[in-house]
Write a structure and sequence with these properties.
Blueprint lengths: L5 H19 L7 H16 L8 H11 L5 H8 L10 H12 L4 H23 L3 H17 L3 H12 L1 H6 L2 H14 L9 H4 L6 H14 L9 H5 L8 H12 L1 H17 L1 H7 L3 H17 L4 H7 L1 H4 L2 H10 L3 H29 L15
Helix pairs in contact: 1-2, 1-7, 1-21, 2-6, 2-7, 4-5, 5-6, 5-10, 6-7, 6-8, 7-20, 7-21, 8-10, 12-15, 12-17, 15-17, 17-20
Organism: Epilithonimonas hungarica
InterPro entries: EpsG-like (IPR049458)
Keywords: Membrane, Transmembrane, Transmembrane helix
Length: about 375
């Protein structure tokens, strides 16, 4: 039986226990100490990893060999959408150069990246989820490993999109656009989140959600995304090494597993829409974002790149909306659904460990961290 490294396994168990404390507590009170503890562990285990995760070796070589040769004027040109010789997004290059200027090794950059991606998401989860630790449990596998500890460019871009949700709620369009501009500077695929500012205002109910998803399923075999192939191809969805392709191979084989996850999300959105709308502030906003993600997933289903990378920022909100839906239910049903998702995540743990976890070097034999000698 393949398992993840003990630090991840122990943390996974702690997150489950903390989530039980949240859901089974009689008080509607969040636990900041637990959130801080989990956040610090996630940052250290991701930020100080060594040769772990997709694309780590090539990004390490870029950090010390390629990025230092680039002039700031080239970054400035790329920032203003002028012609430039830089092949990687300007904000990612700039962050690398700033960290490198202080003389730190590559793990300094991975630590800074982890502080940004995990810290900002944890803050957003704490502010917008009734059960923030339960939200982290759903994010932990696979998001933490594949994005925050793997595809760092896209993780940084997606995190800025997630952070922009605060400005969507407050209806501050210029701040939202600034977040999207920075997100685009980390990874081009972030531009797909631009419609979210207006998308959240579309009035939906259970019937409309059902019909939207059914239409998306019908459109799936028609490959309608081919009409926008030139635009979608320009988003540079694939990362820079074969580490990415290895993950895609596993995700392609596990499409039926992803299908089941999307169907489950769709069921919760449809079945408990009224209850959640009545009890959760701004539920309609996050619901519309996840509905968009589910619909795009089925439309892009036959393309493993688009259906995983392109819609990830929308689907990423599912770890936020599921705990909020469950929090809106009566006590017995709430605990039943929580137990179901805990069991599901335990099952997912072993599925992930056997495939992406092994490929990404997160197992006991392969995981390395600069906090301890190996």
């Amino acid at each position: 039986m393949i398992v993840l490294h003990p630090v991840f396994t122990i943390l996974f168990i702690l997150i489950i226990l903390f989530s039980f404390q949240e859901v089974y507590s009689n008080e509607e009170k969040k636990t900041p100490v637990a959130s801080w503890l989990v956040a610090i562990c996630l940052i250290l285990f991701s930020g100080l990893r060594g040769n772990v995760g997709a694309d780590y070796p090539v990004y390490r070589s870029f950090y010390s060999l390629y990025f230092p040769t680039l002039d700031y004027s080239q970054i400035y040109d790329r920032m203003l959408f002028r012609q430039s010789a830089i092949d990687i997004e300007w904000m990612y290059v700039l962050l690398n150069k700033i960290v490198f200027a202080f003389g730190g090794p590559f793990q300094s950059f991975t630590l800074v990246s982890a502080i940004i991606t995990i810290g900002m998401k944890m803050r957003m989860y704490y502010q917008n989820s009734v059960y923030p630790i339960f939200t982290v449990l759903l994010f932990f596998i696979p998001g933490f490993f594949i994005a925050d500890s793997g595809h760092m460019r896209q993780a940084l871009g997606m995190t800025m999109c997630v952070f922009s949700y605060q400005f969507i709620k407050d209806r501050k369009i210029w701040w939202f656009l600034l977040c999207l501009y920075i997100a685009y500077g980390f990874h081009k695929s972030a531009i797909i989140f631009l419609p979210a500012y207006w998308l959240v205002l579309i009035p939906l109910n259970s019937n409309r959600i059902f019909y939207a998803i059914i239409i998306s399923v019908i459109l799936s075999p028609l490959h309608v995304y081919d009409l926008f192939s030139s635009f979608l191809g320009s988003l540079n969805l694939q990362d820079v090494s074969n580490g990415y392709n290895g993950y895609i191979g596993y995700e392609d084989k596990a499409s039926s597993f992803m299908d089941g996850t999307m169907v489950l999300n769709a069921f919760l959105l449809i079945a408990y829409d009224k209850s959640a709308c009545k009890k959760i502030w701004y539920y309609e906003y996050m619901r519309n974002i996840v509905v968009m993600g589910v619909c795009l997933y089925f439309i892009f289903r036959d393309n493993p790149v688009f259906s995983t990378r392109l819609v990830g920022v929308y689907i990423g909100f599912s770890c936020l909306i599921i705990p909020n839906i469950i929090a809106s239910l009566n006590l017995n049903i709430k605990r039943l659904w929580h137990f179901f998702f805990v069991a599901f995540m335990i099952f997912y743990y072993f599925v992930f460990a056997s495939y992406q976890g092994k490929a990404g070097r997160f197992t006991p034999e392969t995981y390395r961290n600069f906090l301890w000698s190996n």
